[in-house]
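queue> pop job 88
queue> type: inverse folding (structure -> sequence)
queue> payload:
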């Protein structure tokens, strides 16, 4: 006697379509992140004094440029998340659990601290628009400015340096990118760990390195698709 349960077909489709793959041009997300973050940092650099002890004179003259910089941060964050996805997809089954945890955790912590710092700066601008005379030079401004400075230049970019170290280690172990880029990541991370709290321009090192990694992955992916197309055509 035949078992009717054996002929039952599961009507549920698979949760992930077998043809769903990361686009080969997805590395453009890293390039976009580098551009947006660099623009944001440059606007901050041109508008806000480096010292966290400044009294807030930039609120009168540079608040519009700072607001523009703050509006670029969320888009840079979204692009950075895509960039993380591109790296993890490229690693695939070669992903080492230890270094992958540090790599992903440091990247997310960097992103979170960037958002926290941007929120603090945005709060200062909104408060200034409501209480113009009371904020400049006040203890509230000093606290908010020092908080934003520490969150950005100390904590966020220290996490960026850890991200560079873990990614470079994974790159050497799995050939994620060229070894030269990985070694450059080590050197840049060391400089960022030491200089991010003292040299304002040192913050540009991280988006520059992400740009280098993204361009390498993009070119490598496009070369792979060209090779695949020529093989299928032959």
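queue> result:
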């Amino acid at each position: 006697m035949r078992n009717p349960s054996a002929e039952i077909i599961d009507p549920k489709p698979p949760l992930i379509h077998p043809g769903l793959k990361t686009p080969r041009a997805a590395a453009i997300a890293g390039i976009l992140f580098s551009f947006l973050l660099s623009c944001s940092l440059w606007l901050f650099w041109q508008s806000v004094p480096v010292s966290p002890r400044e009294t807030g004179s930039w609120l009168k003259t540079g608040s519009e440029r700072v607001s523009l910089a703050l509006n670029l941060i969320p888009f840079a964050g979204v692009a950075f998340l895509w960039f993380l996805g591109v790296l993890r997809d490229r690693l695939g089954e070669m992903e080492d659990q230890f270094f992958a945890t540090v790599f992903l955790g440091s990247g997310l912590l960097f992103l979170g601290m960037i958002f926290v710092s941007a929120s603090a700066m945005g709060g200062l601008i909104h408060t200034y628009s409501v209480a113009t005379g009371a904020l400049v030079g006040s203890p509230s401004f000093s606290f908010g400015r020092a908080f934003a400075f520490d969150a950005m230049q100390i904590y966020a970019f220290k996490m960026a340096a850890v991200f560079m170290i873990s990614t470079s280690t994974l790159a050497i172990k799995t050939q994620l990118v060229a070894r030269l880029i990985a070694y450059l990541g080590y050197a840049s991370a060391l400089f960022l760990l030491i200089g991010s709290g003292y040299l304002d321009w040192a913050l540009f090192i991280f988006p520059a390195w992400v740009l280098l990694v993204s361009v390498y992955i993009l070119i490598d992916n496009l070369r792979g698709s060209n090779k695949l197309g020529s093989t299928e055509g032959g």
